[in-house]
Design goal:
mainly alpha, two-stranded antiparallel sheet, 2 strands, Magnesium transporter, magnesium ion transmembrane transporter activity, transmembrane helix, membrane, EmrE-like
Length: 325
């Protein structure tokens, strides 16, 4: 145990201080570019599925798996996860603006309203969200990710995963497709390990005269940054695969909205619960949760409105449940 503690202590210390970031808007702009690239990639995947032209798959994967993450990761170095995660909802806005022209999909009034609410919610997140940037040691990250609140989140997410697996196997084709998008989005939103690695890289990148600025030693001398990178890559690959599967069954205007909606929810919750980003500004945390909730509810209730077949399924199940009761 003593050796383990020494390894952590020698594995790199970031200054355990919180400072207000005046460049949070740069993170929002970078994420706007990331969401635009991600939208293009997702639409290319959908176009490849509809037209059966396989040459569009590599193009879509480059946009979604390379360009989008590159800008997204850069955004995390300027703003907190609980700000960047809701900004991912801009994918829905780009999709609503472009899909009628690129994929010839029908744009309904509810989707227009949803896109407007998402845009408004993103602005609220930027203005009222948590602008505090916290530098932590490697062992502080381990303690952060092992807190009781974080463990409860992991347990609830495990229950959610089991539920998604059940409905994917036992549900109809419509239900299974919806679950694929919802679960893929919820996986993609768990980016707290990515945020941790980005902060460690930033610590090393700002080194002066061989000594990392704000670090006592190199955090990459321990195994934990590489474990975080592996977790981030695994979640990104699985979520991207699930999205590609979902786009083979549903139109982009629907599936992308479901995916991004659940990504926003899990990203906002994990940012506040696992990363503890709400603890430094208790008053602003309420505004932040409100803004994040506004975006998520807007997608769930308007932009991400269920297709008629899925609505009918839920109505029939409800009638059967009432009759049996």
């Amino acid at each position: 145990a003593e050796h383990h503690g020494a390894m952590l202590l020698g594995g790199g210390r970031l200054l355990a201080t919180a400072s207000s970031s005046s460049l949070w808007w740069v993170g929002v702009l970078l994420d706007a570019v990331a969401t635009l690239a991600g939208t293009a990639g997702k639409q290319l995947l959908r176009h490849a599925s509809v037209t059966k032209k396989m040459r569009y798959y590599p193009m879509g994967l480059v946009c979604t798996a390379v360009i989008d993450p590159a800008f997204d990761i850069s955004a995390y170095s300027f703003a907190a996860q609980s700000i960047i995660a809701p900004c991912a909802g801009m994918v829905v806005v780009w999709n609503v603006l472009l899909a009628p022209f690129t994929l010839d999909e029908r744009l309904t009034f509810s989707r227009k309203v949803g896109a407007f609410l998402i845009c408004a919610g993103t602005i609220c997140v930027g203005l009222f969200g948590n602008h505090e940037e916290v530098d932590r040691t490697v062992d502080e990250y381990i303690e952060l990710f092992a807190r009781p609140a974080a463990c409860i989140y992991y347990a609830l997410f495990f229950v959610w995963s089991v539920g998604c697996l059940y409905f994917y196997v036992a549900g109809s084709g419509v239900i299974s497709g919806f679950v694929v998008g919802a679960y893929g989005g919820s996986l993609a939103g768990n980016m707290f390990t990515t945020k941790a690695v980005v902060e460690m890289f930033e610590c090393i990148a700002t080194s002066k005269e061989g000594e990392p600025s704000g670090c006592e030693s190199n955090p990459f001398y321990t195994i934990y940054p590489y474990l975080f990178i592996f977790i981030s890559l695994a979640l990104a690959c699985i979520s991207l695969y699930l999205l590609a599967v979902g786009l083979t069954k549903f139109e982009a205007l629907y599936m992308i909205t479901v995916f991004e909606g659940f990504m926003i929810i899990s990203g906002a919750i994990s940012g506040n619960v696992v990363m503890g980003e709400a603890q430094f500004e208790r008053v602003r945390a309420l505004d932040q949760l409100y803004a994040c909730g506004r975006v998520s509810l807007a997608e769930a209730s308007t932009a991400a409105r269920l297709p008629q077949t899925l609505q009918s399924h839920f109505q029939r199940r409800f009638i059967i449940w009432v009759s049996d009761g």
